[in-house]
Write a structure and sequence with these properties.
By secondary structure, the chain is α/β, with parallel strands linked by helices. The strands form 3 sheets. A 6-stranded mixed sheet has the order 5-4-3-6-7-8, with helices on one face. A 5-stranded mixed sheet has the order 9-10-13-11-12. Strands 1-2 form a two-stranded antiparallel ribbon. The longest helix has 20 residues, at 101-120. Helices cover 30% and strands 16% of the residues. The protein folds into 2 domains: 15-239, Rossmann fold, CATH 3.40.50; 266-410, 60s Ribosomal Protein L30, Chain: A (2-Layer Sandwich). A hairpin with a 2-residue loop joins strand 1 and strand 2. The chain has 9 helices and 13 strands. It is elongated and about 90 Å long.
């Protein structure tokens, strides 16, 4: 596909404070302490995203202010194959800097208007969206620059990648952010953000047909991206600015939707059963490998004493609430299913069932199923080692009458 590249002689000045990111208004370089700033805008004008708000103070004011200070700007369009579409300095000869303040202001406003119009005209060329690769390109556009007082990346987009190493189609929003970050670090996939501030606008602002993110999912998305920047040695600033309505006349390459977990398993805590609340199993409950672990490739408890201590309060709860029928779903790590993985996950679910029966739960109330790696909460691409892979090896408890349990049993 034919690619675009336009070099613009433009600049952006950014003022980052402890509470946010604001422009400098109408102050000129003669009225404030001048600084040289290098900035990259990483914008994602793609499908499944609300309209990018180029009228926000983050965009409008900072572009105008920086043009007065003769800095540097690059622009990366983030899609399936991110591309740098503009990169240059706006510094000018000393003789032109002697012009009147009003002349400098007029020129700055004109160039800011041109830049914003140029950015608004950008549309993704490639299907899908890869924010991590876009950030990597933005870092490269700034890392070799010298003589600048600050380096900043401004990201405008949802942050919901559907391609590359950090592909949220792999159910990453159901995983603790620290586990995702550990995995990225192990794979050396975190860019070097040393000396760079990343300011993010419109994170999580998705549009149809992408399902809206819950507040928990938005928080996890923000924690993942802030963690990536901070582990890479940079500073992260979240900017909560409203998006524009989607331009329905624009034509964008396809972007796959990310299936969002509606019933993410919650970690098991035995105190959660010390209650008379009969709706405790409205959400699936996970028995993690840390509490109910098995001998590798077997359905025998690795630490039977610990497993029994974890399962007993569940049995006590079920005995007290006889109306509940339980589905136990066993799962395995890895992404490829086979007769072996299905059988192993079934046997591990059966092992938990047998323990519950030993504690007095009527066996007719417990159904088991082996899902291998085809469970609704599976995180793909995690392999067999590491914290995320460990989360994929589990037994999940569900109320057998719940919609999720019915869906599982109907497959």
């Amino acid at each position: 596909m034919k690619k675009r590249f336009t070099a613009l002689f433009l600049t952006i000045c950014l003022a980052v404070s402890a509470v946010g990111f604001t422009g400098c208004g109408d102050q000129t370089s003669a009225e404030t302490t001048s600084s040289m700033n290098a900035v990259c805008y990483a914008i994602a004008p793609t499908a499944n995203s609300q309209g990018l708000n180029m009228s926000s103070p983050l965009v409008q004011d900072t572009i105008y202010d920086t043009i007065l200070e003769y800095g540097y700007i690059s622009v990366v369009v983030v899609d399936g194959e991110p591309e740098m579409v503009a990169a240059d300095s706006y510094d000018i000869d000393a003789q032109y800097k002697k012009a009147s303040k009003e002349k400098l202001k007029t020129d700055a406003r004109a160039k800011a208007t041109n830049l914003i119009a140029y950015m608004e005209s950008q549309v993704a060329n490639d299907a899908q969206v890869d924010y991590l690769e876009g950030l990597r390109m933005a870092v490269r556009s700034l890392s070799s620059l010298e003589g600048y007082d600050s380096k900043t990346i401004v990201v405008v987009g949802t942050g919901l990648s559907t391609q590359g190493t950090l592909n949220f189609q792999n159910n990453l929003l159901s995983v603790e952010p620290e586990a995702v970050l550990d995995q990225l670090e192990e794979k050396n996939e975190i860019p070097d953000f040393t000396g760079i501030t990343v300011v993010w606008q419109q994170m999580g602002d998705v549009a149809s047909p992408q399902e809206d993110l819950s507040q928990t999912q938005r928080k996890r998305l923000q924690e993942i991206w802030s963690g990536i920047v901070e582990r890479g040695g940079g500073t992260f600033v979240y900017n909560d600015i409203m998006a524009n309505p989607v331009d329905t006349e624009a034509s964008y390459p396809a972007v796959d939707t990310v299936d969002l977990p509606t019933e993410t398993p919650i970690g098991f805590d035995e105190t959660m059963f010390d209650t008379e609340d009969e709706s405790i199993l409205e959400e699936p409950v996970i028995l993690p490998e840390e509490q109910v672990s098995f001998v590798p490739d077997k359905s025998t408890y690795l630490n039977e004493e610990e497993a029994v201590a974890t399962i007993q309060p569940i049995a006590d709860y079920l005995i007290e609430h006889e109306q509940i029928k339980l589905l136990l779903a066993g799962t395995t790590a890895g992404d490829e299913d086979s007769d072996y993985t299905i059988k192993l996950s079934q046997e591990r679910a059966d092992a938990v069932r047998n323990t519950l029966i030993q504690f007095g739960v009527d066996e007719s109330r417990i159904v088991t199923v082996g899902l291998g790696s085809s469970d609704p909460w599976h995180v793909y691409g995690a392999g067999y080692e590491g914290s995320i892979a460990s989360e994929n090896r589990k037994v999940v408890l569900l109320d057998a009458s719940s919609d999720t349990a019915k869906d599982i049993l109907s497959e």
